[in-house]
Amino acid sequence: MADTTPRKRTLAPWMGLLLTVLGALSNGLPFIGFPAAPVPWIGLLLSLIGFVVVLLGLWRVFGQSTVYRGKLSGSIAAAFSFLFLAAAMLYFWGARHIPAESTAAPQVGQRVPDFTLPDSTGHSVSLTQLFSGSAGKEPPKGLLLVFYRGYW
């Protein structure tokens, strides 16, 4: 005699996938004003929790297959959840990786080597020209250089 009891559908794999996607999307939080320091931790934690929820859902689907259905869709959700978790882990590692200090970088108090760059009108201006001052004025004590991209 066939069992006519309808099998339930579990939402755990899909809720877990949603959490892993939210973990990946949380990396955009600094663009809306959220402090950037905890963002990699938030993304990793949400993705990890989501992946655990997906695994619990799969355990429920495959372990109690007479009660729950959704083996194929749960497996697809688990695969995508794993991809989002891997992306969150890569982002976390990249955000925490601090490059080694460059020995060629200028140090505090070190004199800047002379260079010549075009100004906003296209005329060449050297660093020594800026520090020499003009007639009747004393030379400046400091200099602020602003580098910008584009032509606006």
Protein architecture, described:
With 152 residues, this protein is mainly alpha-helical. The chain has a domain at 8-96. 47% of the residues lie in helices and 7% in strands. A two-stranded parallel sheet has the order 1-2. Strands 3-4 form a two-stranded antiparallel ribbon. A hairpin with a 5-residue loop joins strand 3 (116-118) and strand 4. The chain starts with 7 loop residues before the first strand and ends in a 20-residue tail after the last helix. The relative contact order is 0.13. The model has no long low-confidence stretch (mean pLDDT 81).
List keywords for this structure.
152 residues; mainly alpha; two-stranded parallel ribbon; two-stranded antiparallel sheet; 4 helices; 4 strands; 47% helix; rod-shaped
